[in-house]
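S.,

Sequence below, as promised.
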Amino acid sequence: MIYKSFSALFLLLAGAVAMAQNAPPAAPATPTTAPAPAPVAAPPVAPPRGVSLDRVVAVVNDGIVLQSSLDRQVQVVSGRLQQAGQQMPPRDILRQQVLERLIVQEIQMQRAARLGIKVSDEQLNETLTEVAQRNNVRFSDLPAALEQQGIDYRSYREEMRREMILGQLRQRDVYSRIYVSPRELEQCVARTQSSPEETKEYEVAHILISVPSSATPEQIEERTARAQGVHERAQRGEDFADLAVAYSDGATALEGGKVGWRKANLLPSAVADLVPGMKKGDVTEVIRTPSGFNIFKLVDVRGAEQAALVAQVHARHILMLPTAVEDEETVRQKLSRIRERVLKGEDFAAIASVSSADKGSATRGGDLGWASPASFAPDFAREVDALEINQISQPFKTQFGWHIVQLLGRRDYDASTDVTRNKCLTQLREARAEEETEIWARRLRDEAYVEYR
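The prediction came back faster than expected:
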């Protein structure tokens, strides 16, 4: 189901974790072409009877949040909460939570526009194509598939565009400034591999009662009382996810506060030492951090990861490119003759070092090293997959040119260390990014002019 699988497009987080992986650069939310001006003497046209005009619910710097946007997002979030089986908070609380999220989004979109962050139609279409593929739908059928779920395709595209822009903004303002030293990374890998406890992962939920950086003593007192009240209700057994939806100012509030699976040393620093000693279902005391008052709940625990075996191949190749002098058929014939020479005993590596147009591998005799077939271009991977050990392919063409390839070996490689290192790097960055994102988003919010209507 497209809506369920990609509900993140509608979350409009004040600051998410994405990484992403988040690729570089589209347009700010304002239209690129101004509407044609009305005739000077034209009288105002009244709306049709029964049709209400949209109204402004908040002024944000030099932008606005419209009632229609608020209503649409409330409907989306309500549907998602019902789908997840969560209790709906009172309507006014839900609307205020969604409105605050739209305000923060508008502030961030304005900053993205000032920085010139854009997502082109081509980039947007590439992402939507991936969305369609992962849902077993052709890109051309995506509008109809969304319509069946009651989702307007044009609105879906613009939500996706905004989420991509916000992801790029967070990458620029937050993630790109987080540094993980090689020593920290190796220590994380060593701890994970040496201790079974280090392989445990914890699912944690979070409630944040934020405190503005310029808060008055009265505001701090009010936020303290609110945090204590929410904590007491959580301790009495009220549903933590419902409390997060109703009261949390955190980026994951409308997801029940869940921050995902983390190893102990990669949890938010404020709770990293506490969680391993907690039992499933336990709730922490109220914890004060620079972003405000925090309450955490241990939702679940899971054990060690299994070995990650990856199929790899060892191959070498010779690449040749057609030129103005040598057309494709001439290049194919040259590679055929080289293949015959190798079969008669000439050294493949020596020929590759002087003949291959792939300069990166030519210096190694055409050797591509051990690699997963998935790392190759599809046409190249198919040729390699069809070969026996030491067999040389017939000349074949890919997007890069003409090749012959020799398969030198196959193996199942235990990539557990590589997987652990990548996970450690990602989680170390995310553990820091979570708090940094909250502080960044709150600073932007505090510096903005907001007028509720």
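The radius of gyration is 28 Å.

Coffee later?
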